[in-house]
Design a protein that fits this description.
Blueprint (H helix, E strand, L loop, with lengths): L16 E2 L26 E4 H8 L3 H9 L18 E2 L1 H16 L3 H13 L2 H5 L2 E4 L4 E4 L2 H8 L6 E4 H12 L4 E3 L5 E2 L4 H12 L1
């Protein structure tokens, strides 16, 4: 196993990397799904603060504090000036939800900031198969079941967050909330299962 600064890699499965390690950037994978659950180009859809809070399971006070302290800032548009609204990308909301889970588990703010930088720098295909593990002192990235097992065999108490699972949770939540087209500002109305059920009942009458 390789942790921060030791420069060593065990034989067998690829080493578990601390998210604080400096790694050569990986090229983005091709043909990944870049569509939202509603069929829009994910990169072209943004969300205001209330929608980001609802999907991430946090309060607006938390969202505002994290933005002002630089823990999780909106990558699309920060709040500047009267009447301006922060705009969050899908990946921003994903990071918000993961930060909430890390804080709830007692991970230090320093480690969370390191994890946030790592998540920001990761490509969507990498995020979809990533598991973040923490032993209380260091946050690690695991991209395969073998790496998770390798870390658990160290005998330390660890917990993990399957980023792909969180991704699906956020995607399902945002599909039911209003977004905006980043270039035109057009409101994209979320899909509500209750509305679809009502339409089916009306067709059946």
């Amino acid at each position: 196993m390789r942790s921060t600064g030791d420069g060593m890699a065990a034989s067998g499965p690829p080493p578990v990397r601390s998210v604080a390690d400096r790694c050569t950037p990986r090229p983005p994978a091709g043909n990944e799904d870049r569509r939202t659950a509603c069929g829009h180009d994910r990169a072209a859809v943004v969300y205001r603060g209330p929608a980001a809070c609802a999907a991430a399971g946090i309060t607006y006070r938390q969202l505002d504090y994290w933005a002002r302290t630089g823990l999780v800032e909106p990558s699309v548009r920060p709040e500047r000036g009267a009447g301006a609204h922060r705009l969050y990308s899908f990946q921003d909301v994903l990071v918000l939800k993961i930060v909430k889970r890390l804080l709830d588990t007692g991970v230090s703010l320093q480690n969370i900031r390191t994890a946030v930088r790592h998540l920001r720098d990761s490509e969507p295909p990498d995020l979809a198969r990533m598991t973040l593990m923490c032993d209380g002192a260091t946050v690690y990235e695991c991209s395969s079941p073998d790496q998770v097992v390798d870390l658990l065999q160290g005998g330390q108490g660890v917990f993990g967050i399957a980023v792909g699972v969180v991704w699906r949770d956020v995607e399902n939540a945002l599909a039911q909330l209003h977004g905006e087209q980043v270039d035109t500002g057009e409101t994209l109305v979320g899909f509500h299962p209750g509305d679809e059920l009502a339409r089916r009942r009306n067709r059946a009458v």
